[in-house]
Structure formats: C-alpha cells, structure tokens
Design a protein that fits this description.
15 strands, Spo0b-associated Gtp-binding Protein, Chain: A, six-stranded mixed β-sheet, Rossmann fold, single chain, alpha/beta, 2 domains
C-alpha cells in the first residue's frame, strides 16, 4: 500500500477588535458610544472531495492561514467576518494532530466538513460597556486569538491500474521506460509499504497510481507463488492492463498466455473478469516491421476481439507506443471513476 503524506500548519483568522467610536452629530457636544463588534476570524475547514486522488497540492505547503475578522465600525456596525478557508481532501484521507498523533477526522464522504481551526471571536465594541454612570465608555474588547494546529495528512492510495502479466511479459522494463519518459515519480514524501506501487505523473497535472503486480503464474489462485496476496490487490484496482509478451522466448502463444491470466483471475473471483481492461502487446519491436500488421490482426482474432478492434502495441525497450498507452490508461481510469463504463466489458485500441 502506498501512503501519501503531507504535514503543515493551519491557522484560523484572528477575531477583529471591537470599536471604541463615539457618536458624532452636528450640535452634539458629547455623543454616546456607537462602536460595533469586530468580526469573527475565518475558520479553516477540511472538505471531502471525490475528484481528488492525492495530496500533491499540499506537498510544499508549510503554513495555511484563514482571513482575519475586520475591526468593528462606528454607527454600531459590525466588522466583516473573515472568510472560511476550505481545504479539499480526497476521500479516505486521515487528519492527525502532528504533535500528539491524535486522529482528528477520517474523511470518508463527499462534502464531509470538519472545522480543524475555528476563527477567533470578534471583540465587543464600546456600546456594550455603557452604564447610567458611565455613558461615554472608551473600553472595547480585542478580538480573540487565532487557533494554530500542525496537522499530518495520510492517504492510503488504491491503485488505479492493475498491471498483470506472466513473468516474462516485460513489466519491469515497461515501467522503467514509463518512469524515464513521463515521469518523474512523485517528488513529495510518501512511504512505500508494499514495493509494487508507484505514482506516474502525466502532463496537465494528471497522475496514475499503478500497481506493478508480481508476475502471475499458473496456479496462483490455488496459493502457488504470491497467490492470494496478489489477487486481493487486483480486486481494488479501477481496471486491469494485461501486458502480453508479443514474442515469448519459450515460444508460447500470447493469446494463450492471456487466457491463462484470465483463468487465474476467474479462479480467485469471477467478479475480476468484470473489471475494465486494456490489452497491450509488449516487445512489439521484436516483430519484423514487414510482418507486424499481419501479426497484430492475427492476435486480434486469436484474442477474440470484436471486428475492427485490436490490442494496443508497445515496446518498453524502445518507447514505441508508451505515450499512447498511458493516455489510454488515463481515459479508462477516469471513465471507471465517473461510472461511465459498464462492468464486464473490455476496452480495446482500434489503432
């Protein structure tokens, strides 16, 4: 499990001071008090946002401050309240007091709100201090102090993409190529509790969380190899990317290898077959260019794809098709999260 971290300080707004104004009018020698109350300082509020995936926007923040309340005004007018500062967090994010380690809130639903730092109360104006024997008071209250809290955010990331394939499919080479081509892997603090997860940055401040799942071997559903730990992680991904070796060194057929993977997934849970998926033929550079088109058409037929649709083709070694593959993954992830795709169907490249 990949855990995204961010630690920073939030400070609410200071309450505005009350006013000690005296009423002034033509011909009035000594007017009474008309100083209004100060406005309350702005609150700092965490809000659940289902469209966020990471804590990247807080990675380099150190201090986040809400607006102070305004000072009270003459004519008994109140000072303006400081605006509430809303800080959006992805669902599943936990907020801790960084000093004590206390869990303050677990953000679990859209638009869930939690006031982490309440604004200081506005001070009273001098209108509150008038008495029959003290009719022109100049006393007033200062606004309340702001609240300052150092918070630590933790977000356990669930992989968007489950990368599956047999041990010879070239997944490590592919991810190495991806990290060089796209990426920078996220440059803000996170802790890898399971070394198979990583984040890949795409242009336009987009990000994919990819589970580089261990090579699946026949019999995994029965407990062979990494077995159930592997398959349990697959269950949590948004969709699956099947990476097939286009030219297996053992002479096996890529389509048969695909069916082996599907069989193991089905043996663990038939529901896994309902996940959205992309199929990519890796090491396509090992297929002669003059024979490549015919090979892809043959694979489309053997994989049982609908007429006119073909598997994606890519080369982790040369970078061929890498950008297109990542964009296709991004499209699938967004559709899955937006609920725009029917479960049980498969996604294919037509190019």
């Amino acid at each position: 499990m990949l855990v995204d971290h961010a630690t920073f300080t939030v400070r609410s707004g200071k309450g505005g001071d009350g006013s000690n104004s005296l009423h002034h009018a033509k011909g009035l020698v000594k007017g009474g008090p008309d100083g209004g109350d100060g406005g309350n300082g702005g609150d700092v509020v965490f809000v659940g946002d289902p469209h966020l995936d990471t804590l990247a926007s807080y990675a380099r923040r150190r201090l986040i401050t809400a607006q102070d309340g305004e000072k009270g005004r003459k004519k008994s007018c109140y000072g303006k309240r400081g605006e509430t500062l809303e800080l959006k967090l992805p669902l599943g994010c936990q907020v801790f007091d960084a000093s004590s380690g206390e869990l303050l809130v677990d953000i679990v639903s859209a638009d869930q709100r939690f006031v982490v730092a309440a604004g200081g109360k506005g001070g009273r104006g001098n209108i509150h201090f008038a008495t029959p024997t003290h009719q022109t008071p100049r006393e007033f209250e200062e606004g309340g102090d702001p609240v300052e809290v150092e918070v630590r955010l933790e977000l356990k990331l669930i992989a968007d993409v489950g990368l599956v394939g047999l041990p010879n499919a070239g997944k490590s080479t592919m991810l190495s190529r991806v990290s060089k081509a796209r990426a920078k892997i996220a440059d803000y603090p996170f802790t890898t509790l399971g070394p198979q997860l990583g984040m890949i940055d795409l242009p336009g401040e987009r990000r994919l969380v990819v589970a580089d799942l261990p090579g699946l071997i026949e019999g995994a559903a029965s407990g062979a190899g990494l077995g159930h730990d592997f398959l349990r992680h697959v269950e949590r991904t948004s969709f699956l990317l099947h990476l097939l070796d286009a030219a297996p060194p053992d002479g096996s057929n890529p389509a048969e290898n695909y069916r082996t993977i599907r069989h193991e997934l089905s043996s663990f849970s038939p529901l896994l077959l309902e996940k959205r998926e992309l199929i990519a033929l890796n090491k396509i550079d090992l297929i002669d260019e003059n024979e490549r088109e015919a090979f892809i058409e043959k694979m489309a037929l053997e994989l049982g794809l609908p007429e006119g649709e073909r598997p994606m083709t890519v080369s982790g070694a040369t970078g061929l098709g890498v950008r297109e593959l990542l964009e296709a993954c991004w499209t699938e992830v967004r559709r899955s999260k937006d609920g725009g795709l029917n479960s049980g169907s498969s996604a294919w490249s037509t190019g």
